[in-house]
Design goal:
This protein is an all-alpha fold. The model has no long low-confidence stretch (mean pLDDT about 90). Helices cover about 80% and strands about 0% of the residues.
């Protein structure tokens, strides 16, 4: 019986799909914070910082998944 490991580029494709989604959510958060009366630094800085952290954590996680998938072969 052969094991189906899926697309070898799966983690990369997932990351390519997630980054635009994270950016869109950061823009929405920035608009909502600006409309709520927060200053420009908070309205732009907080969503940017959170989106960078989420992107880095997701990238590290997917890199580890890809390394595990490569080691299984």
């Amino acid at each position: 019986m052969t094991k189906n490991s899926g697309n070898p580029n799966g983690p990369l494709l997932l990351m390519m799909g997630m980054v635009p989604l994270i950016v869109v959510l950061a823009v929405i958060a920035a608009v909502l914070l600006a409309r709520s009366g927060f200053g420009l630094a908070v309205a732009l800085g907080v969503p940017f910082g959170v989106s960078m952290v989420v992107t880095v954590v997701t990238g590290v996680w997917l890199a580890r998944v890809a390394a595990r998938r490569r080691d299984r072969r």
